[in-house]
Specification:
Blueprint: H1 2-16, H2 24-41, H3 52-64, H4 72-77, E1 80-84, H5 92-98, E2 103-108, H6 111-123, E3 129-133, H7 136-139, E4 149-154, H8 160-167, E5 171-182, H9 186-191, H10 193-198, E6 201-210, E7 217-225, H11 239-242
Parallel strand pairs: 1-2, 1-4, 2-3, 4-5
Antiparallel strand pairs: 5-7, 6-7
Length: 250
Amino acid sequence: MEKYIQAETLIKDSLAQLDIEISSKQVEQLFMFYDMLIEKNKVMNLTGITEIRDVVLKHFVDSVSIVKVIDKSKFQEGISIIDVGTGAGFPGIPLKIIFPNINIVLLDSLNKRLVFINEVIEKLSLNGITTIHGRSEDIARKKEYRDEFDLCVSRAVANLSTLCELCLPFVKVNGHFISYKAGNPTQEIEEATFAIEKLGGKRESVVSFFLPDSDINRVFVNIKKCKSTSKAYPRKAGTPAKEPLVRNNK
């Protein structure tokens, strides 16, 4: 169909601007994912973005634009990643398709979303990718996941201070947590300084840019983990969102 031909051109051209080459098989996998996403979206709320051009730019290209912050060679080498609050599988599924060598865990608190993601994983014959159902506050306390990942990513819509508490415990010392943000999050980033330091991190960079072939602004907040997070964190489920770590709180 014509829409797929145009979408394939858009995918290839947009990723080329990120210095990423994509094979015909990978394009096919992305389209299969798109078709499954749109079909499942008819019966459950996975995304408000459904037009193929929008999905390509706002989900697929956006997910892998993290190469603006982390050199793509790291992904090609096969680093370990956890995607916290993956939702419909973003950025985890596109990252796995484009960089098949990575080992990635997709975490979400809503099991029916993970049922869908597992269907995608099976349909696309993806390996080195698993899902976990649970709250990150609980999963981050499990020995097999704490301090275990080279990289934690999250596109979840939440306050950065909250996200740091939910995400940094998963990251190895000298690993990174990358938060996907939009608009102008300058104040939010400044307010998260206390939480970042309290949780053993250091803000390494903030990268702002427009997605290829669009006027969509994206901001990556790159936080390096410099020391282990105190065992006091994350606090019990719900607390990080209700009481984000700020300087006048505990």
